[in-house]
Amino acid sequence: KTADKNLSEVSIYLCVSLQGGVDNEVSLTAYITIALLEIPLPFTFALVRNALFCLETAADQKENHVYTKALLAYAFALAGKRDKRKALLDSLEKEAVKKDGSVHWQRPGKEPEVDLPYYHYRAPSAEVEMTSYVLLAHLTSQPAPSQEELSFASLIAKWISGQQNPNGGFSSTQ
Questions:
Q1: Where is the Alpha-macroglobulin-like TED domain (predicted)?
Q2: From the centroid of its chain, how far is CA 117?
């Protein structure tokens, strides 16, 4: 009870303007909620319940950044909120970059990639990260991903694997 009460007080801070290397408070709230759901804390836990309420409210905003949508989709997938997850994934699919038999997401307003001989372009780590969250949202479908989702997920995985450096890693620890 004491831990639940203390964590409930922390939930007040989840919807305020905290910045921690993410674009906005919604992204930070989604990160924290994802971590709590992966523990896994039950949905009845006050902190999780309050955080999900904040995210549901934020998900209805039309101006959400593609990165934020990716985080929200994964958070709702973990929470078993199928309708919210599906709505976000449908919105994200409209913003997807489909190229060379693969699918990924990039930041709005980004300069187009330059095709140079003997050079393999690697996307910035934020784009690898957001594309990975979309992949996780597709694969975390409950009860299980459909064959259509698995096929689409394989196109995402193809792009992500193409971003690996020669040693098998990526451009950052993210």
A1: 8-174
A2: 33
pLDDT on residue 152:
96
* Of 97, 110, 92, 84, residue with least CA distance to 159: 97
Chain length of the chain: 174
Rg (CA), the chain: 17
The CATH number given to whatever domain includes residue 65 is: 1.50.10.20
Measured between its terminal Cα atoms, the distance across the chain in Å is: 35
Number of domains in the chain: 1
By three-state DSSP, how is residue 16 classified? Answer: coil
* pLDDT per position as a tens digit, 135-154: 999 999 888 898 999 999 99
Across 49-64, b (16+ Cβ under 10 Å) vs e yields ebbbebbeebbeeeeb
Indicate the pTM of the whole model.
0.83
Range of the domain at 113: 1-162
